[in-house]
User: Which sequence fits this backbone?
């Protein structure tokens, strides 16, 4: 199973919504793949964290305060024709934390508007909880992106190592059996990958061409690797 | 009275010591001028001469030794090790069969590799595939009577044979360490210590009667052992049936032919054939010479491969010209996954660009990009030497590919979480 496939099933795996086969495949992949395993742990931790949260209850005085403010604002608009905030000289200026202004401004809310301080506190708390809850997932996604990049780098580097090691074959005093051990191992794993896969996949990829399956090789199909894939 | 007695005793003792010294000197001189006896440790100068002559014999006449043997191989990687036991049969001058036996530490199964003098056949029963590599038979191997294909081309350095030994002698201190028993044979232990720092060293055990290496130990530039191979059992015999070297391809087994390596070309020939500029590092580590170059095709692009050697080791420099990326195929999980041997991902600052560092076995790789070219250096030398080589490549200002930032990941995550996931 590929990492992409595993990641597409990871949520269903976590919720135990997969069939037996898929569940076992994902389980096996997580046991072998460190990056996906980390992602799974982060997702699991987030789910557990969110599960511990309770819905915030509004304070009892919220609705009476809201009705009172609505009435006051409507009366002011009727009397002056202007929809001003409660920042009039007659209103006592209360000392509020600096960040509340930022939060309110960011939310498009000004003082004296509909939301009470209790609602603002709830909003900010929810935002902080959301930020904390998603931080591991964001970090994991970032790490995963880096791991994917490293993986593709490995893939692109392998042919170079292959050429390098083959050139060692010709060195005086080199141990041919040792070099052969490495080179043949590379050939096998490259072949079992998509690059040199047998039969249809290879033919479709165009890396191998079927030279003469019947005439030249009665024992089996014969292919020629035209070039190193990349 | 007592003073006279003491003085007499002292004089007598001094006279005895002087007489002893005078009597010993001629004997010591005689011993130096005498040739070492069979079985006795030779003097330093004589040992060095013997080591040089043994190396020459192995390089020039190693192919002439026919044998059947069992050999053990152990390789150490940055992240682990791998080992294998093999049965090897060699019939002079160019027939070799190696059966790699499965083991717990070798992730592969049983495989056979046969060199018939013209090409190499690699049968992998677990895959039902035979890899056929024409022109890669190691007839110049088993001690290597000559360099790689085309190593004798004009303008290139032949890294083996007489020239190769001269290069080894120029770059390594060759000394005879001791004589030991191994696989029922007696062997001279020869140490090859690099004269230039940052290079690997080697110890080899050469049979006292035949030009044959019984054991090899390789040490990286850091002094740690990187590979070991030795014969557990060996029988020197030429009574070997030729049928041993004929691979009988079982029915249903696919044969995949992999092109052999091209002949080494001079730099001028390489430039002409490549059709693109092939820059060469201005700095090359002390002792290394340009050996030549080849062209390798990867997908729809050609890559120039330039080789430097100090006689024993190789530094490979790959130049990949700017090419349309659309036709490039993605990479695949490869041999690094097989044995978990590649350690990749370290980044290093080059002049004006970033380079990628990777380790595989005892080799280090540096890769970087400049003006659309991709450059790759690989060698079993100290990392700093490779970086100096990389910095000396004359190329336009590099373009480094954009890398995902943490901020980018945050935005991407929230976009996918809140929007794309709907």
Assistant:
């Amino acid at each position: 199973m590929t990492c992409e496939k595993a990641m597409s099933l990871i949520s269903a795996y976590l919720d135990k919504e997969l069939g037996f086969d898929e569940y076992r495949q994902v389980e096996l992949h997580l046991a072998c793949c460190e990056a996906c395993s980390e992602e799974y742990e982060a997702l699991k931790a987030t789910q557990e964290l969110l599960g511990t949260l309770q819905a915030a209850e509004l304070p009892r005085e919220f609705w009476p305060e809201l009705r009172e403010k609505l009435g006051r604002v409507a009366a002011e608009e009727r009397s002056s024709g202007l929809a001003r905030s409660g920042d009039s000289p007659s209103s006592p200026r209360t000392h509020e934390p600096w960040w509340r202004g930022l939060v309110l401004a960011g939310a498009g809310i000004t003082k004296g508007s509909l939301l009470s301080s209790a609602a603002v506190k709830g909003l900010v708390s929810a935002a902080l909880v959301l930020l904390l809850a998603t931080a591991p997932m964001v970090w994991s996604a970032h790490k995963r992106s880096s791991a994917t990049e490293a993986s593709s780098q490995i893939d692109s580097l392998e042919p170079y190592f292959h050429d390098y090691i083959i050139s060692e074959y010709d060195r005086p005093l080199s141990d041919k059996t040792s070099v052969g051990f490495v080179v043949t191992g590379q050939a096998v794993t490259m072949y079992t990958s998509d690059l040199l896969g047998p039969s249809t996949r290879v033919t479709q990829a165009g890396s191998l061409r079927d030279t003469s399956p019947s005439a030249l090789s009665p024992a089996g199909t014969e292919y020629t690797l035209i070039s190193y894939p990349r | 009275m007592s003073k006279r007695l003491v003085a007499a005793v002292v004089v007598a003792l001094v006279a005895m010591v002087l007489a002893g010294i005078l009597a010993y000197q001629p004997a010591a001189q005689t011993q130096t001028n005498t040739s070492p006896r069979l079985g006795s440790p030779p003097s330093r100068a004589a040992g060095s001469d013997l080591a040089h002559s043994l190396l020459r014999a192995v390089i020039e006449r190693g192919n002439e030794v026919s044998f059947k043997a069992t050999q053990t191989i152990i390789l150490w990687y940055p992240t682990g090790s791998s080992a294998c036991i093999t049965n090897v049969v060699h019939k002079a001058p160019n027939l070799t069969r190696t059966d790699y036996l499965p083991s717990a530490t070798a992730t592969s199964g049983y495989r056979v590799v046969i060199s018939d003098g013209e090409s190499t056949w690699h049968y992998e029963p677990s895959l039902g595939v035979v890899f056929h590599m024409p022109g890669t038979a190691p007839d110049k191997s088993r001690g290597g009577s000559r360099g790689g294909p085309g190593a004798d081309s004009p303008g290139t350095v032949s890294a083996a044979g007489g020239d190769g030994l001269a290069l080894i002698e120029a770059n390594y201190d060759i000394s005879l360490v001791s004589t030991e028993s191994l696989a029922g044979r007696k062997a001279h232990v020869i140490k090859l210590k690099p004269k230039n720092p940052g290079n690997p060293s080697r110890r080899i055990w050469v049979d006292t009667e035949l030009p044959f290496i019984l054991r090899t130990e390789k040490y990286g530039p850091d002094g740690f052992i990187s590979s070991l191979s030795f014969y557990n059992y060996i029988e020197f015999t030429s009574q070997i049936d030729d049928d041993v070297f004929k691979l009988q391809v079982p029915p249903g087994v696919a044969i995949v032919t992999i092109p052999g390596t091209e002949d080494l070309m001079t730099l001028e020939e390489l430039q002409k054939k490549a059709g693109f500029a092939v820059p060469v590092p201005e700095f090359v580590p002390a002792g290394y010479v340009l050996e030549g170059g080849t062209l390798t095709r990867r997908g729809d692009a050609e890559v120039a491969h330039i080789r430097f050697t100090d006689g024993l080791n190789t530094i490979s420099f790959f130049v990949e010209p700017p090419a349309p990326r659309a036709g490039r195929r993605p990479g695949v999980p490869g041999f690094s996954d097989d044995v978990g041997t590649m350690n990749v991902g370290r980044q290093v600052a080059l002049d004006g660009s970033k380079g990628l560092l990777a380790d595989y076995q005892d080799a280090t790789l540096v890769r970087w990009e400049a003006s659309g070219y991709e450059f790759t250096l690989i060698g079993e030398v100290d990392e700093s030497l490779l970086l100096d080589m990389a910095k000396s490549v004359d190329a336009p200002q590099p373009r480094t590919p954009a890398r995902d930032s943490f901020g980018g990941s945050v935005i991407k995550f929230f976009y996918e979480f809140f929007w794309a996931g709907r």
Summary: Chain A touches chain B through 71 residues (CB under 8 Å). Chain A has eight helices and two strands. Chain A has a mean pLDDT of 65.
